[in-house]
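Hi R.,

As promised on Friday, here is the backbone we talked about, encoded as structure tokens. Could you run it through your design pipeline when you get a chance and send me back a sequence?
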């Protein structure tokens, strides 16, 4: 790739606004928003030079975009979001529990020539994405970059946003991309996380039997989750090969699995009485089951899969702004599911929906989140280490986001598609599911070797498995 400016090729780019050499974390002029919030800290990885947990989002635009237009848009975005001019600075401190590490936001300025790159060499979008996933940010510069390249063959411009997840959650990142669009009048409250958790309201049920049934359901689901987790932990097998060992260097891979019409996924959702997120998770579990059976050349009667998901806890009306101290606000959940050769589609989706709704309608996620935050405030290293151990039992992680965006233009050119992928930081496989307009896309980043062509066939077969009952 070549770029007329491309200061990223230099190990020591010069910029008067870029990081000062001050190592004093108590200098109020250099500290922004204080300590890194707990959710962001779980995604941060100092040992991997901030490769860590990255989001790569890209837009497909019909036609060629003027670079000056993009540059002006980016200038306004940088001025709007102070965090884009900040870096994360780990500071070792001695606390009650011994050596601890505080991570602070520090304002260092922003040089647009470092963060905006125009690609002129012939290259495909898949290569750009994989390179973005595997390229470290310079730790002395804010951890984000936007690249743009024009493909003359299909007359499309691709705009790729590569940013560390510590800079914000899905709502912030979609809002940032939304600021690139022409005549932006989008209602920010329309952005939503597919897995947004709402505080449950008191259930109005005047009958004793109704209350009793609710209590029984609560105990039943809790027992299922605990029982399955105990079985998984007792097996003692680490399913996640992405350990915290800093001596291991992983090569992240990217694969586009499928893009469906959103209406087709909603037909499955409505037929089985579940959510879109349940359907997508069901497709993942069934496809993994088919894939594992295909590579082992045998049919497994029963297989358990454990997934790690992050529930967005931020109020939709309170988007990430420069004044917000918590750039990410979510809770971790682990969902254990069982699939067998004799299980039908309805049984699997009902199982997924029951457990997921338990997390959504009870205070268990906010409760666990508060416990982790308290633990983190007392002893950061211990809290992060324990979350890493817990996540290691999971077969895969999921990131779901409904953008609620459609019919957008950039420089007068139509935005055809928006998609994203998240690096599988501390997970062996991470599924990124994102919607734009009337489409929903499933991408995967992964560490372990997979035959991606065979797996795509398994994803298509899993989808057809769910639609079979609709066609009968």
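Update: got your reply. Pasting your designed sequence below so it's all in one thread:
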């Amino acid at each position: 790739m070549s770029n007329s400016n491309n200061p990223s090729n230099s190990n020591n780019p010069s910029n008067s606004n870029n990081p000062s050499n001050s190592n004093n974390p108590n200098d109020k002029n250099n500290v922004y928003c204080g300590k890194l919030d707990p959710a962001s800290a779980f995604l941060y990885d100092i040992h991997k030079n901030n490769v860590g947990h990255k989001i790569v989002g890209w837009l497909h635009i019909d036609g060629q975009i003027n670079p000056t237009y993009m540059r002006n848009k980016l200038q306004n975005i940088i001025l709007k979001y102070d965090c884009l001019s900040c870096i994360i600075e780990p500071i070792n401190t001695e606390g009650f529990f011994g050596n601890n590490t505080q991570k602070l936001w520090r304002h260092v300025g922003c040089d647009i020539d470092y963060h905006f790159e125009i690609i002129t060499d012939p290259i495909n979008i898949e290569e750009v994405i994989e390179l973005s996933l595997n390229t470290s940010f310079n730790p002395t510069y804010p951890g984000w970059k936007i690249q743009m390249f024009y493909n003359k063959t299909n007359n499309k411009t691709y705009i790729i946003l590569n940013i560390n997840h510590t800079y914000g959650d899905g709502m912030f990142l979609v809002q940032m991309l939304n600021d690139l669009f022409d005549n932006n009048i989008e209602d920010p409250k329309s952005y939503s996380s597919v897995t947004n958790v709402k505080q449950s309201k008191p259930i109005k049920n005047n009958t004793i039997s109704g209350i009793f049934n609710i209590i029984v359901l609560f105990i039943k689901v809790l027992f299922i989750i605990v029982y399955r987790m105990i079985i998984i932990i007792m097996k003692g097998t680490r399913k996640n090969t992405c350990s915290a060992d800093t001596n291991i260097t992983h090569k992240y891979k990217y694969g586009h699995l499928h893009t469906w019409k959103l209406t087709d996924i909603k037909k499955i959702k409505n037929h089985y009485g579940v959510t879109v997120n349940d359907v997508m998770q069901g497709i993942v579990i069934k496809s993994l089951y088919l894939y594992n059976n295909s590579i082992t050349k045998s049919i497994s009667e029963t297989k358990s899969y454990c997934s790690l998901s992050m529930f967005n806890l931020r109020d939709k009306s309170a988007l990430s702004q420069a004044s917000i101290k918590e750039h990410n606000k979510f809770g971790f959940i682990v969902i254990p599911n069982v699939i067998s050769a004799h299980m039908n589609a309805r049984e699997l989706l009902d199982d997924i929906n029951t457990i997921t709704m338990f997390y959504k309608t009870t205070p268990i996620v906010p409760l666990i989140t508060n416990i982790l935050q308290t633990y983190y405030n007392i002893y950061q290293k211990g809290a992060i280490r324990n979350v890493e151990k817990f996540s290691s039992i999971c077969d895969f992680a999921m990131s779901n986001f409904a953008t609620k965006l459609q019919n957008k233009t950039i420089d007068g050119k139509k935005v055809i598609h928006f998609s994203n992928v998240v690096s599988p930081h501390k997970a062996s496989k991470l599924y990124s599911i994102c919607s734009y307009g009337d489409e929903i896309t499933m991408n995967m980043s992964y560490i372990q070797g997979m035959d991606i062509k065979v797996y795509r066939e398994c994803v298509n077969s899993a989808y057809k498995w769910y639609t079979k009952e609709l066609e009968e």
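One thing I noticed while checking it: Confidence is low (pLDDT under 50) at residues 1-28, 185-205, 243-248.

Thanks again,
M.
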